[in-house]
Each structure stands twice: as C-alpha cells, then as structure tokens.
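Could you help me review a protein record that somebody else here produced? Do not assume that whoever made the record got everything right. The record follows directly below this note.
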Amino acid sequence: MSEEQTRILLAEDDENLGSLLREYLQAKSYDTHWLTDGEKAYNSFKKNKYEICILDIMMPVKDGFTLAREIRIIDPEVPIIFLTAKSMKDDVLEGFSIGADDYITKPFSMEELLFRIEAILRRTQGKGSHNKQTKFSIGNFEFDANKQILALGDENQKLTTKESELLKLLCNNANNILERNFALKTIWVDDNYFNARSMDVYITKLRKYLKGDPSVEIMNIHGKGYKLIL
C-alpha cells in the first residue's frame, strides 16, 4: 500500500454487514466510504474520487445495477465489484454486461473480498511491467492500451479497463491462439464459469467495436480460446 490510502465506495443497505465491511477494510488501510442506498452512493461518487466501488445489487431507492450504469457514465474505468445474495446466472451476466469487474455472492468471507479487491487493484493500477508495448495497429484501427482508446480515422471508442486488457492480450497474440484459461487467469484471476461467461460478453463487445474493418476478426477456437486475425 502507498502512503495515500486507496479510497473505496461501499454501497450496502444491510446495517450489520455494511458496518462490518467498513471496519474491516478500514483496518486494512482502505479509506472506505459506506452509504446505505444507491442514491446516496451516487451522490458521493459525483463528489469524490474512488479507486474501486463495491455495490450491493438489492438496495432501496436505487439498485446496484442502476447505480453502476450511472457510475459508468461518469467514469467508464473505475473497477466495480457487485455483492449479491443471488447466484442466478442472469444477474451475474447482467452485472458483467454493465462493466463489472467481479462479483461475490453472500455469504462471503472478509478475506475473500479483500483478495478480490487486491487482485483488481493490481491489474488496474498498472503493476507489472511485462508486455510493455502499448500501441497497436489492428487493420485500419489504432489501439492505445494506456489511454484505452480504439481509433478508426477520426472516430474514437473509449474502452473499459477489462475491454482494453483483453484486446491487448489479443494483440500480443495476434494471429495466434490466445488460450482461454490464460486470459481468464491474467485478467479475471479465477477461471470459473461466471468469469468465463463474462469474458464471452467482452469478446462480443470487442467484435462489435472492430466491425469497422471487415479484414479484422476475432475467431473462436473451439476448446482452446480466441484468435485475433489481422
């Protein structure tokens, strides 16, 4: 941890859980702002700079999905972890389609949440110096991984952190197979079912962004992974 504390937005309407989470994260040197409904959390996000958001899905006034969408309008990159009492696949996939970085199902251990927070921060704060190339030509597109911008002529598409990380892996393995498990463990840390489905959502988004050049294709390689064809 740096001397300046990482600031966390915690939106959780359960008084007991919210209080416990705030105390635990504060003890781990995270500056944690706890709000009890989505509207209060949104107002706090507008006024403050946060490095990560932890959002309960089921909240009064404004639910976690709505809050996440509004946060994404203000900041497309800030990492979001959803807390959910449900394990329904559709809920998890909806969260990932909004641009969530992870989810955790209640009940969970404090240590597991801390692990997930630290894993996300390692990725998003640029730790690790391998694959130093940050600018790529993808057919007629120019991709700047640092700025997270995919450009075609004068048109710029701003990418989320995960979209950018996944596209960078594809570029580093262009015309070769990017193994599915390698990508999952590199970006999502865990190669479980829900993370795998999340990656499929992001692949679909990247294909949509790259439609402007028909010569560029992201192929599914059955049982192995993906291949960016240039």
Summary: Helices lie at 15-27, 38-47, 64-74, 89-98, 110-124, 161-172, 180-188, 193-209. The first strand starts at residue 6 and ends at 11. Residues 193-209 form the longest helix (17 residues).
